[in-house]
Amino acid sequence: MSPKEAKKVTTNTLQKMKAAGDKIAMITAYDYSFARLFDDAGIDIILVGDSASNVMAGHTTTLPITLDQMIYHAQSVVRARERSLIVVDIPFGYYQSNSEIALASAVRIMKESGANTVKLEGGEEIIESVRKIVSAGIPVMGHLGLTPQSINKFGTYVVRATENTEAEKLKRDALMLQEAGAYAIVLEKIPAALAKEVSESLHIPTIGIGGGRHCDGQVLVMHDMLGINTEFKPRFLRQYLNLAEQINGAIQQYITDVKSGDFPNDQEQY
Ligand code: KIV
After folding, report:
1. Which of 143, 150, 160, 226 is the best mutation target for the ligand 1 pocket, counting ligand atoms within 8 Å of the beta carbon and taking the most?
2. Which residue has the higher pLDDT, 246 or 232?
């Protein structure tokens, strides 16, 4: 094994990180150039999220994106990978109906993109699919709490599992996912105390997005944390840059330079 291979993040690395109390950093990416930057910076996991439906395609939900489109994004991200683990969302409609279809979708993602693992939303309802995919040798990341593919059932993006019944179901679902062979679980927008309890009850890592500081890792959507998408300001989001403002300034300056004849100058032409 080359030293570069040895440094690659695998699902095993994540189990060891949890056991050692080392936090896991995950971010979304959908194209080669950003994935390259994130991998170079040392991110542990890159998620090719179905949030591509929102941030790349401009849809209001994650539901419209297709499996072919997810594979296209995943292929671009995988080409940038040196070290990070690449996880790809199986999009809405490509695993819910039965476990055969779920496995076929997971196999297409793995075979056609070269990604390392897939992610599915839900607990008990999809547990057969998780078992089948895992038994085919494909690692599965779960996703509980606010599951955006079910937005039409929830009707709103508010915090989930604040009531006892839903919290109890989430705890059962987390254990079932672990039992079915999932190697990690995303906990989205649930009370921090519940995320802490779930994280402590599992030997696999939890990755929070609005799940508080006791999760074993954190994930953010790149467009939100880099300030490309500035309209989305949930409490859980920490915005590290204001790229929208910087890009706007750069483009305005470029327009001014072109229109005034300042660009290109003598050094910028042949
Ligand atoms: O699609 C996505 O970006 C996600 C994250 C919100 C975890 O699933």
Report:
1. 143
2. 246
User: What pLDDT does 237 receive?
Assistant: 98
> What would the pLDDT profile of 168-222 be if each residue is shown by its tens digit?
999 999 999 999 999 999 999 999 999 999 999 999 999 999 999 999 999 999 9
For domain 11-239, the CATH architecture is Alpha-Beta Barrel (3.20)
CA distances to 116, 161, 184, 207, 208 from 192, rounded to whole Å, are 29, 11, 18, 12, 9
Q: Report domain extents, the chain.
A: 11-239, 242-270
| C-alpha of residue 88 to centroid of ligand 1, in Å | 10
CA of 87 to the centre of ligand 1 (A): 10
**Mean pLDDT value across residues 133-137:** 98
105 CA to centre of ligand 1 in angstroms? 18
Residue whose Cα lies nearest atom 5 of ligand 1: it is: 49
Strand partners, 145: 188
Name which of 198, 269, 191, 183 is nearest 235 in CA terms: 191
Contact 54, 62 (CB under 8 A): yes
The string of pLDDT tens digits covering residues 36-67 is: 999 999 999 999 999 999 999 999 999 999 99
User: Is residue 142 within 8 Å of residue 119, measured between CB atoms?
Assistant: yes
> Whose Cα sits closest to atom 1 in ligand 1?
49
Ligand 1 pocket list (CB less than 6 A): 28, 47, 49-51, 89, 186, 188, 209, 219, 221
